[in-house]
Amino acid sequence: MSTTLPRRLQSVLNATARLMFRARSSAHTMPLLRILHWLKVPEGIQFRLCVLVHHCLHGGAPQYLAETLQLTSDVDSRRRLRSGSTSTLLVPPTRQIILGNRAFPVAAVRTWNALPATIRSASSYLTFRLLSQTFLSKVSFDA
Predict the structure, then answer these.
(1) Over the range 85-118, which residues count as b (16 or more CB within 10 Å of their CB) and which as e?
(2) Contact predicate 129/50, CB 8 Å
(3) According to a count of CB atoms within 10 Å of the terminal CB, is the N or C end of the chain lower?
(4) Nearest to 103 by CA among 87, 91, 119, 115
(5) What integer best gives the mean pLDDT of the chain?
(6) How confident is the model over 42-52, as pLDDT tens digits?
């Protein structure tokens, strides 16, 4: 179930790209997606999560979402560690592996922490959006 929906969404995205370029149904879609600056579905999900975390950290998201995220530097036991001076977030513990890892606080924090520090530290929303989309595009198409 976990891979079925993303594969279907990617199929719709590919079909849309082919339709826009009037390409054959057997044509490769990677060049078309690059031209359109569209991310693949997994990277698109990561991008949306990162944008939502950025909003949470900068006061642009609902309070109930922002309360689920905690900076590593805000934890007393980590202030003296090297991780205390970074912009990483604390990954909350989960009991259930499958459902727990899909919860917003866990998935968003892991995606956020996977971004380079230069992108995480961008204060402007537009700069963050541009840098993160470029980074995830490189991950998406160069892999």
Answers:
(1) ebbbbbbeeeeeeeeeeeeebbbbbebbbebeee
(2) no
(3) N
(4) 91
(5) 87
(6) 999 999 999 99
